[in-house]
Amino acid sequence: MESFLAALLNGLEIGLLLFVIAVGLNIIFGVLGVINFAHGGLYMLGAYLTYTLVSRGGLPFWPALLLAPLAVAILAIVLERLVLRHVYGRHVTDSLLLTFALLLIIDDAVRMIWGSGIQVVTPPPGLRGATSALGFSYPVYSFFVMGVAIAVMAALWLFFTRTRAGRVIRAAAIDRDMAQTIGINVPLVITGVFALGAWMAALAGVVAAPMRAINPGMGDRIIIDSFIVVVIGGLGSFPGTLAGALVLGMIYAFGGRFLPELNLVLPYIGMALVLLLRPQGLMGRRTG
Amino acid sequence: MRNAIIALILLALFAALFWLPSYAPYFYIFVATEILLMGLFAASFNLIFGYTGMLSFGHAAFFGIGGYTAALLLLHFQLPLFWVLLLSMLAGMLLAAVIGFFCVRLDEVYFAMLTLAFGMMTYAVVHQWRSLTNGSDGVAGFALREFGLGLDLQLADPAVYYQMVLVIVVLASLALYLITRSPFGLLLRAISENAERVAFCGINVRRYRLLSFIIAGTFAGLAGGLFAPFNRVANPDMVHWTESAQPVLMTILGGAGYFLGPYFGAAVFVLLETWITTYTEQWMLFLGVILAIMVIFFRRGILGTILDWLLRRQ
Amino acid sequence: MNEPILSVRGLSKSFGGVHAVQNVSLDVWPREKVALIGPNGAGKTTFYNMLSGRLRPSDGSVSFEGQDITGLPPHRISRLGISRSFQITNIFSELSVRQNVEVALTALHGKGLQMFRIASRDRALREEAEQILAQLGLAELADLRAGVLSYGDKRLLEIAIVLATRPRLVLLDEPTAGMTPEETRQVTRLIRELAASNTYTFLITEHDMSVVFDLADRIVVMHRGQLLAEGSPEEIRNNKAVREAYLGEEEEP
């Protein structure tokens, strides 16, 4: 029972963090029509910047939580304006390849700056150690991660349903040409969406930094996970992303505990099953 | 006339490559072998990508299973290499038939994602099935004996192995080339441009996509079967998705619209990697920059851009 | 004229509650030239898509030469002898003009699985393709890349592809859309010539009424997804409901 509860909590934690990363990927796909391979790299940059600010710069964790995502969002604006812009309107393969190139660049830049080894960030005081509030011992920091993810989710939901900017983005995601004709500044929306997605990926990176081993391969791994989440949940679906993230989180948590030999292959089986039985994803809209 | 000139150039190139061991430094024999094998791997990928219009992110599964098949057969049964290679092709073909059966149902992004999923499933199986594959260490310690077919080849000599690879890759490439020029190949190109129109001409598009996928898997299996003995090991890296990205990069680099594009791309890729890594560890950084520039400005690849430029001058 | 070549019964298609085509029944007889007209959004293209297998009908049936073809995939329907053109030009721009036709011929002759011979050396295929191109006046353009053709020639090439599948029933979706008056005359003449060969049956949608009244043996009018009227050009010209449907909703250009 205890191990079941612990796995459930663990799955929730992995899933919620994945949600924060994958939802950005999904929004970017919705508005830009771009499958952003570099998204994993931006997540990794968030974690490494935290390492530099906290472990090297001696800054407390909290300012890093603000500064690192901001820096990554600014980098994303530059990338979108200077690089990505060239392939809009082209075949989806082109944006896939271009963002893959960006991921390669980010990966190696990280290796160059921070080295190939594993880096560590300790959790801020007050969030260290474990708590037995639920009857078994569980890291305090994990609850913080879940809290941040839920806060992001709530903020996103409010943003998309209650604000004008949110509605404009949704309009642009549904029909870019139509949005243009009704006077929406689409290029600005695109830049904004890309920056927002990058900001969330980096935020997840900061939050993940104290509990994951920071290494140059973490971006590659997380982007594949995010693809799985988005495919399972449905391209372009916000609730679907949450469902997909939770499904994958549970697969990892329970698979790791109860089926360790199959742990590597389970996510892909899940993704393949969804693609074959319901290609639009659990909650995606069917198109065409 | 033009064809005769091209044939003559290719023949001269073949001769120059065949006798490479007699004039080039020893080191370049390895580089050339790698170029040939990656070129064949990339060309097989391009049958699906450039000719049929489907971006696969799981092509390493077939390369990898070819490699493992070869390594295991050589280790446990000491078969002649000829038969090993045939079985490597068969393994690639069968795996492609299974994976392709599911994947060709989907289009575009979904196809790319599903091939990625199946590729990584293959990776996971290879990685976890330790009793057979020896996990992350891979299958090594096998020896090359004879080639078979009564040919007396000293395969342990890298120069001989290289010449054998050259002949096999050339023969395989001729077969692939013929396929792209055949009525079947014409339909593939038509499908890549406008699958729906082809269906309205009475063609079962899904079946053609599957066949193209299986042929590509077969040749990737051959490339893998030749690669494992060359590399002295078949390990999970051969199956990982980053390995699947290699033929994609090489094809984009060389030019997907030309049959020789992937070979050219493989050559540029391997040579650049060889040279750049002697100066810096940041090879991937350069590769990323080059790839980005190619995608943005030279979508037809290096070979395509050069040929376009030459044609325009004429 | 004992059996209809195409027989449609109660064909319907709805998209999420919207009835694009509703309970349409229609018979087409061998070697007829039937024009299908109606204002924009009348459901003509949806109707075509169901006949050719692009869309699966929500209800009703289609039979061709006595065989039920309802819901068959496009390639099966094409092989049975129905071929269609598209409203938006739908050719293979990267292939040569001749290759465009050869794609259809390869499919027709079941040569698609030949992998170890060179397609361009197939003399029979080449001659047949050139014959079809000559029929459409495209013979001299055979070696050009199809993408560089003029708009009118692209539309003609599209018809060439349709003919290359050797259909008995030809569905043309606005064959003269966007053409100059000269090109329109050429296409009209071509259709009449083809019809005179007594091998084809035509179902044509068309916006240009001069073409419709010039060509059609019989006219079928669709309006809001339903059949509004059916009859000879003379009858349709004098039909009150038809005039209202057109005048009420859309000015003819």
Question: What are the defining features of this structure?
Answer:
A: globular; C: alpha/beta; 6-stranded mixed sheet; 4-stranded antiparallel sheet; disordered C terminus
What does this structure look like?
The complex is a heterotrimer of chains A (288), B (314) and C (253). With 288 residues, chain A is mostly helical. Chain A has helices at 2-32, 39-56, 61-82, 92-114, 140-162, 164-174, 176-181, 186-208, 218-233, 238-258, 266-277; strands spanning 130-131, 138-139. Chain A has a domain at 17-216. Chain A is 72% helix and 1% strand. A two-stranded antiparallel sheet of chain A has the order 1-2. In chain A, helix 1 (2-32) packs across helix 6, helix 3 (61-82) runs antiparallel to helix 8 and helix 9 packs parallel to helix 11. Chain B is mostly helical and 314 residues long. Chain B contains 14 helices and 2 strands; from the N terminus they run αααααααβαααβαααα. In chain C, helix 3 (97-108) runs parallel beside helix 5 (151-164). By secondary structure, chain C is an alpha/beta fold. Chains in contact: A-B, B-C. The interface between A and B is large, with 38 and 38 residues.
Known CATH architecture of chain B: Orthogonal Bundle
Mean pLDDT across every amino acid position of chain B: 91
Mean pLDDT of chain A: 89
Helix-residue proportion of chain B? over 70%
The span between the termini of chain A is: 46 Å
Question: Tally of extended strands of chain A?
Answer: 2
Q: Supply the number of helical segments of chain B.
A: 14
The order of strands across the largest sheet of chain A is 1-2
Number of strands of chain B: 2
Sum up the overall morphology of chain B in one term. Answer: globular
Spatial extent as radius of gyration of chain A: 19 Å
Order of helices and strands of chain A: HHHHEEHHHHHHH
Q: What is the molecular shape of chain A? A: globular
Query: Could you name the CATH topology of chain B?
Result: ABC transporter involved in vitamin B12 uptake, BtuC
Specify the biggest β-sheet of chain A. 2 strands, antiparallel
Radius of gyration of chain B: 19 Å
